[in-house]
Specification:
By secondary structure, the chain is an alpha+beta fold. The protein folds into 2 domains: about 110 residues, 2-Layer Sandwich (Beta Polymerase, domain 2); about 100 residues. About 50% of the residues lie in helices and about 15% in strands. The protein is built from 11 helices and 7 strands. Strands 3-4-2-1-5 form a 5-stranded mixed β-sheet. Strands 6-7 form a two-stranded antiparallel sheet. A hairpin with a 2-residue loop joins strand 3 and strand 4. Helix 6 packs antiparallel against helix 7. The longest helix is centred in the middle third of the chain and has 19 residues.
Length: about 250
Amino acid sequence: MQVLNEIERLKKIRILYACETGSRAWGFPSPDSDYDIRFIYKHEKDWYLQLGLRKDTIEVMNGELDITGWDLKKSLILLKKSNTALIERFQSPVQYRSVRGFSNDFSALIEEYYSARAVYFHHYFLAIKFWEEMKDQQQLKLKSYFYLLRSLLSCNWIINDESVSPMHIEGLMKYISDEDRGMIRELIQLKSGENESYMHDCTKDQRRLITDLLNATENKGGNLPVCREDFTKLNNFFIKQLDATDNK
């Protein structure tokens, strides 16, 4: 992807991994959905040997491309906290770049540092926020319905399966009924032909699915596992990446 090459040149960085996120990676895009590109990058080793705080993110808007990068050190600190957005990026079905071995090695670290409880509460609080905004509306943006639905499906996955949850909505539907899966797939098909501003009249069953998932996932996070790993493996990985000269 040429735009990533240009970011590398202008910012004097090395992009280690880049992928698609957002609705195109989640499995329910609209025709006018942006391309949400996220990447992890590193500087030369000397960049990190400075006492002052330095900017550790890069943001670029380029037409329909919404591009954000996180520095490697920042990313590893966030992984220690089991940051949901970061973890999901390595489940993305669309990867634009991954230097040799980086994706596999980072994914292995995700398995080590994954905290089901942290990811559950991330999605649960998002779901409650979305629900409070739309529960009294008969007509709402289909995009907003899917954001709420995806958060609840993620919570439902986590309380049924403590492994790292899928990013794509198709995988997240594993623990619901065939009937509900069929209904969601019909909505995905509808959304694929409507712009993001499309307002949808929810059916009784579409609302019932939301309330069923809310009831099924409420107050289920407290007993989920928490990662107890220290920084050792992350430090070793960080040093290994900074020492690497063949990230091609």
